[in-house]
Structure formats: structure tokens, C-alpha cells
Amino acid sequence: MFTALLIDKADAGPQVTLTSVADADLPEGNVRVDVSHSTLNYKDALAITGKSPIVRSYPMVPGIDLAGVVTESTHPEWSAGDGVVLNGWGVGESHWGGLAQRASVDGDWLVPLPAEFTARQAMAIGTAGYTAALCVEVLLRHGIGPDRGEILVTGATGGVGSIAIALLAEAGFTVAAATGKATEAGYLQDLGASTVVDRAELSDRGKPLQKERWAGAIDTVGSHTLANVCAQTRYGGAVAACGLAQGMDFPATVAPFILRGVTLLGIDSVQAALTRRLEAWARLARDLDPAALDSIATEISLAEAIAAADRLVAGTVRGRVVVDVNR
User: Fold this and answer.
1) How far apart are CA 32 and CA 78, in angstroms?
2) 117 vs 94: CA distance, rounded Å
3) Chain Cα centroid distance, residue 144
4) pLDDT digit string (tens) for 3-41?
5) Closest to 77 measured CA to CA, from 42, 111, 35, 27
């Protein structure tokens, strides 16, 4: 038996309980993992609160991330004792996820736990940090280097935004951080932001083309914010879009793309190829100071995850939430 957070379907909406589960109830998978730590992401919070139809089948263990040690494997790449990390691939949505003490998964979904990080630190990074690294990689591949000018990060106090700022600063970029939390300016500057922008400047409908400000951007917000970011991006710049905190809509025109040659780069972390995942984790291992994760992450127990999901959906959580599934 092991302890898990379990979501089941009920007439009044999802029913979430902390319960004991038998090993025999684990889903099919060619690798079994003793989970050490997981995370609480926005998608997990939506699943737990029932605010969005994230869960595809019931019952479901949420948690789109996990880190732990392999206990059994019939997969050729993994053996008992290997430290592993999993991000995405539909876990916590259509396959049982990481908010449990054990997991059974497809070995193709795993990457090695970098030697530079503990399991807890890897989950302080989690899908958010891995997505941030994917964004930085794609901007660099597109030719947006530190010499091109300032990079904007929206949703800056969130998990993706926080780690994106740290990675960009380490890579030599000048970073502007957009946030609605003026009290967090010191936190953002400690991560490496040079300037802090009030998100209100970006969140309302704006003109199709605006004053050129950014060489590139990482946007976690979507909707009017993304449209304004594109309208303010310099000629030949690029915007990596990876989130929809403000909304899924994109109320923009083609003007920035056909008059300034701006490129909009979509970032998908769920189905990203193994080569991209390994590149992202290599950048994180090389450029992210493990000590910086202490200021980015807060640790909670598995039992505290339900209440924390409400706070995350309400937008009152800063940085990353790490879940120690064994306490």
C-alpha cells in the first residue's frame, strides 16, 4: 500500500481525497518509481479544484511532475536505483501522476535526474523550470542573443517566469519582468531582472503596433498581454508563448508579423521530444544555481496540496510549490 492524492468523479464535481492505494491498482507501465517529490502546478491545481476539465479518466492521481528512484524496470534504459525525473506526457491527466508515493510509467517518458540537483531541487524546477529552459533554448536557436536587447518575461513571479528570469540573466540577457505584484520587485531583481514592468501596461486591449521595446519575450499569460507583447517587439524579434494565465484568446492582428518580421514561437512541454528535454535539463544543470531554488520554491506535504491548489488558482502563490509526498 502507498499514499496518494486521488481524484474521483462525483455528481457535485471532482472529489479529492488523501487515501491508501494498493500496488496492484497502479496503471500499466514498464518502470516503477518510488516517488520522492512532486510539484503543484497550475494545471494540477485546476484538476484538484475542478476549475477546468484537466482529468481525462477517473480515478486519477494528479501531478504532472515527479522525481524519484526506479525500483523495477523492464525498459532497456532504466535499472533499479536510477534517479529519474518525469515532466508532462499526460501524467496527472490521462495516466496516474506524481502526487503519490509510487508511480508506474512508460520509461520513454523519463529523463535522468541531473547530478547537480537533488530530487527536491529537480521538483523546485519541475515542468515550470523545464518549460522556461525550453523557451530560452528556442529564443537562442532563433538568433535572439544578449546583444539584441532587452527580453521581457510576463507572469514573472510564477514558476515559469521566475526560472526564466534566472536563466536569461545567467545567459547574459538584460531582463524586464512584468508582474502585478509590486511588492515582489526585490524578489525579481534578486533573480536577475533589471527592470520591473506593471502588468497593467500590457493586460488591456492595445494598438496593433506599438513602440518597439523588446528584442524578445517569454510570455506565460496569453490573451491581450501576448498581443501587446508582440505589438511591442522589435523588428526581427521573437516571442516564446507557453502559457494562458490571462486567457486562451489571442486578440491580435498580423501587423507585428508582416510589418516587423516578429516570430511567435509556441512552446509545448507535454509532448516535447527527448532531445529537447535533455537540452533543457542540461541548461538548467549548467546555468541555474541550486541555491536560488530556495527563494523560488516552497515545500508542502501531500496532505497540504488540496488547500494549496485553491491558493494557486487564486493567484496568491509566488514561485514554485514542491510536494514532499512522504510527509
Assistant:
1) 10
2) 28
3) 22
4) 999 999 877 778 999 999 999 999 999 999 999 999 999
5) 111
